[in-house]
Design a protein that fits this description.
heterodimer, A: 2 domains, seven-stranded mixed sheet, 14 strands, globular, B: alpha+beta, six-stranded antiparallel sheet, 18 strands
């Protein structure tokens, strides 16, 4: 079992012919993803790793029945490509690119909401369900194993570290969701918690958060009210100074908003075990599952 | 990117938001000329730092000669590290009351957010929540004039002043959208001319960095220290901190987690550096070289190879070592894609690499301050 994507998801790659698109199409195929097509208006008719390239998303959907898209187009083209995918009937949209202008992300989210489309990202490593052998994203294939833990993360590499530690401790994953590091994102902690809470295969949930914004605080409120499965968290940025943007557009303490302390306090009050160091997560999960 | 006050006001004026119609000048002669047209004026240094007034960057003048003398004092002065090369000559105005209005990006609501208050002239953070009107805008529809009228009513404006406010807010929203702003703020929105006219007496206009590619019209202003500018020019996210262990990690979250882990073991990180996902040898070597140049007590490299290949990071480090030598303690931790090869490359160059993040962080702290520190 998994959330959002599974072995039946029919995936297209927008921007399949670029260097990132080609490389990660190969990696996604190697993992087992059912990639049914790619899109590039000028390169229609070509193939990438044996995957047919279509001119438009509409054409790809007509000919393959695609229902999900993972995007590798450059940031200035993301809005148009996202609208195209939503217009063509795609229902799961994974936006990998960083540096999409925030106002355009807002326009994408408004359009997606009107059409009932789930958006993941932008500025995300994507989503992976190891037991279903499907991934839409750029995460390394070898660090995940099937198992009972759902992970939702704001950051890529840090979540790789944590997934790797969990897998090495015999704790595999149902689905790992990268929310993305931007200020405006599609699927957030609360959305992911809701999905994992309802997924029978997920027995424990790991949140990988960081300073900035109030996502973790809202997640804490949701956990208190609704989540009946154990939740473990690691939060990055404890030593970050206020007013400095730590790489991610969303990772900044503004005034007294978005501090490490406020997030730890809110999550702890909701019964979440917060790890002080990333490699403490497996032990906390194991204890919670006893 | 923040715009200078004069540019912010120019953007306001272009969208029907009245300002003092000040004149931007670069020499005392121009200032004297401007003051002759304007009358009693304020000479304001155009720098992007707060607290200009207290630091001597804003001075009043009643005559053109006085304005010239004040400009001679301000132009060329060092204001909190910035040399003043432009001043804005604004008319002195008599303010009856100060209002506040701004538009920002609300990440949680995924919508633009308007904030307005009848208690302007101070930082909005210091205004009580119940004295601020909050209104979201549906970005697909845009700001409707009725919303602006409703906000005007809630901050106590009536009649002609409410009409003026509505026009100002609609114009401000147009400018916000056109220039991909992340913040536009008029503070104070000043009631002048014996309570008959609203004007933008001061303002802020921040254009989002990710949208600058389509706004070549704005002069580029880079903020940050010399080192920050140098590393950012390579295309990497970098923040200078006040510690003494230089840090390189890949990914923003991992870089933050690395700083926290060092701090946990008593280390003082000198910087945040996200060496990126999938960067090549050359940018990585340049970034490493820049860290070396800061003369830290130790360097800690923490790589979890996903799209980043450990062997390429190792090659970058060895390249710098061969070219210049590394004369400070270096601790490398490497796991993930091509990690075995990466650690081999380092070992051949006499650099030992760790696989465990905690052990490596402890080693870096010991290398910097000595055992038992």
């Amino acid at each position: 079992m998994a959330v959002i994507i599974d072995r039946n998801t029919r995936v297209i790659v927008q921007g399949i012919t670029g260097s990132q698109g080609q490389f990660h199409t190969g990696q996604m195929l190697a993992f087992g993803t059912n990639i049914v097509g790619g899109v590039n208006f000028r390169k229609a008719g070509q193939e990438v790793h044996g995957v047919p390239v279509f001119a438009t998303v509409h054409e790809a959907v007509e000919k393959t029945g695609a229902n999900a898209s993972v995007m590798f187009v450059p940031a200035p083209g993301v809005k148009d490509a996202a609208f195209e995918a939503i217009h063509a009937g795609i229902k799961v949209l994974v936006l990998i690119p960083e540096h999409v202008p925030t106002q355009e992300t807002m326009e994408i989210m408004a359009y997606a909401e009107r059409h009932g489309v789930r958006v993941i990202g932008p500025n995300t490593f994507g989503i992976i369900s190891p037991g279903e052998k499907v991934k839409m994203g750029i995460m390394p294939n070898h660090i995940y194993k099937p198992g009972p833990v759902g992970i939702v993360a704001r950051s890529g590499t840090l979540s790789y570290e944590i997934a790797y530690n969990l897998s090495n401790s015999g704790l595999g994953q149902t689905t790992v969701i990268g929310m993305g590091g931007d200020r405006v994102i599609g699927t957030n902690f609360v959305d992911a918690l809701e999905l994992f809470n309802a997924d029978p295969a997920t027995e424990a949930i790991v949140m990988v958060g960081e300073i900035g914004g109030i996502q973790e605080e809202l997640a804490a409120e949701y956990i208190k009210e609704h989540v009946r499965k154990p939740v473990v968290a690691y939060l990055a940025g404890k030593s970050a100074p206020p007013g400095k943007r730590m790489g991610h557009a969303g990772a900044i303490i503004e005034g007294n908003r978005g501090t490490y302390e406020s997030k730890v306090e809110a999550l702890t009050a909701a019964g979440v075990k917060v790890a002080a160091l990333p490699w403490e997560i497996p032990d906390l999960v194991r204890d919670a599952l006893k | 990117m923040k715009l200078y006050e004069y540019l912010a006001k120019q953007m306001f004026a272009e969208h029907g938001v009245p300002t003092g119609n000040g004149i931007v000048c670069t020499t005392p002669e121009e200032v004297e000329e401007a003051a002759r047209k304007i009358g009693p004026c304020a000479v304001k240094a155009q720098v992007l730092v707060g607290g200009r007034g207290k630091a001597g960057g804003i001075k009043l003048a009643d005559t053109p000669e006085e304005a010239r003398a004040r400009a001679e004092e301000i132009l060329g002065m060092n204001l909190k590290g910035y040399i003043v090369d432009k001043v804005l000559v604004d008319p002195q105005i008599k303010i009856e009351k100060e209002y506040y209005v701004s538009i920002t990006l609300d990440g949680m609501a995924k919508k633009p957010l308007i904030m307005a208050s009848a208690y302007g002239g101070v930082e909005i953070e210091s205004v009580p929540h119940d004295k601020i009107v909050f209104e979201h805008v549906d970005i697909a529809t845009g700001l409707m004039p009725f919303q602006a009228r409703e906000i005007a009513r809630k901050i106590g404006l009536t009649g002609d002043l409410a009409d003026q406010f509505t026009k100002i807010l609609v114009g401000l929203y147009r400018a916000f959208r056109k220039y991909d702003a992340e913040l536009v703020e008029i503070n104070p929105l000043a009631l002048t001319d014996n309570g008959t006219r609203l004007i933008a007496a001061d303002g802020r206009f921040n254009v989002e960095d990710d949208a600058l590619f389509r706004h070549p019209e704005f002069p580029r202003v880079e903020e940050g220290t010399e080192l920050e500018k140098k590393v950012r020019a390579i295309g990497l996210a970098f923040v200078q901190l006040d510690g003494d262990i230089a840090v390189m990690a890949n990914g923003a979250g991992m870089a933050m987690g690395t700083l926290d882990t060092l701090a946990y073991y008593g280390g003082r990180p000198a910087n945040f550096l996200d060496a990126g996902g999938g960067s090549g040898v050359e940018p990585t070597a340049q970034a490493f070289d820049a860290l070396l140049g800061t003369r830290p007590k130790a360097i800690f490299v923490n790589i979890f190879g996903g799209i980043t290949r450990c062997d390429l990071v190792a090659e970058a480090i060895v390249q710098v070592k061969k070219a210049k030598g590394i004369d400070v303690p270096l601790v490398v931790r490497m796991v993930g894609t091509n990690d075995v090869r990466g650690r081999e490359i380092l070992a051949e160059a006499g650099i030992q690499a760790y696989t465990d993040m905690g052990e490596a962080a402890k080693a870096a702290v010991e290398a910097a301050y000595g055992k038992g520190a």
